[in-house]
Write a structure and sequence with these properties.
9 helices; about 240 residues; globular; about 80% helix
């Protein structure tokens, strides 16, 4: 019989909840400067590219490059299909629609990437409780930054503050789902883990390239570049 460690589930829950904290910080900012917006979008792109490059893809290669390629292509394809369903902004569309789509896309990408993060929290507990704890702390810290990246575009489309925080929280709670399955499966199939990591990487690379980087350069290209570099470094130094 499988025994569920409730303490680890709580750690996964709290780490995911930190995305909501980022959302709260974003709605406190009443007038969002375009320079800050460009920086935050660049930062989100840098984090997504960095996490994919330094963490998701290298770990997915443990089961073989073919599974990594398959998962990566599938992740990008799913986002492409969503992109077709939510077409790019046309001149007739309002800025509110553009920011809404952007916020939802960021939320989708982060939710996908939070599931393997949760798996990491659950699996690291089998190494030691301390390892699981520090893994949760690291994930929680950068979840705060991710919540900010989700909430800023949604704030610009005049979404209610309650809905912004709700979307941020729900996005982060996919971490708890991953933690639960990490504990349930424990010795989960390496192929499954590799495929899911690569899937998240493919989805995030697509979002960064298709939405975040182009939009970040529309107003303040120099701030966007700084944000991208800082996000990339942030992904590098975080556990």
């Amino acid at each position: 019989m499988i025994k569920i460690n409730n303490e680890v589930l709580v750690m996964g829950f709290l780490a995911g909840l930190m995305t909501g904290l980022g959302g709260l910080i974003a709605i406190v900012i009443k007038n969002i400067p375009t320079s800050l917006f460009s920086s935050v979008l660049g930062f989100a792109a840098g984090i997504m590219i960095g996490i994919s490059t330094f963490s998701l893809i290298p770990n997915s290669l443990e089961a073989g490059v073919s599974y990594t390629i398959l998962g990566f292509v599938l992740g990008g394809t799913i986002m492409f299909l969503l992109d077709v369903a939510l077409p790019h902004t046309h001149k007739s569309e309002t800025e509110e629609n553009m920011y809404f789509k952007m916020g939802i896309f960021i939320a989708l990408g982060i939710a996908l990437h939070n599931i393997p993060e949760g798996l990491a929290i659950g699996a690291s507990n089998y190494i030691s409780q301390e390892t699981g704890f520090y893994t949760a702390i690291g994930i929680g810290l950068h979840n705060t930054a991710e919540g900010l990246c989700i909430a800023l575009p949604l704030a610009l489309c005049n979404m209610s503050k309650a809905r912004i925080v709700l979307i941020s929280v729900l996005t982060g709670l996919s971490t708890l789902i991953g933690t639960f399955f990490g504990l349930i499966i424990g010795s989960i199939s390496l192929i499954f883990v590799s495929g899911s990591l690569a899937f998240a990487a493919g989805a995030m690379i697509y979002i960064a390239s298709d939405e975040l980087i182009p939009q970040s350069h529309k107003t303040h290209s120099e701030y966007a570049n700084v944000g991208i570099m800082l996000g990339f470094i942030f992904a590098l130094v975080m556990p």
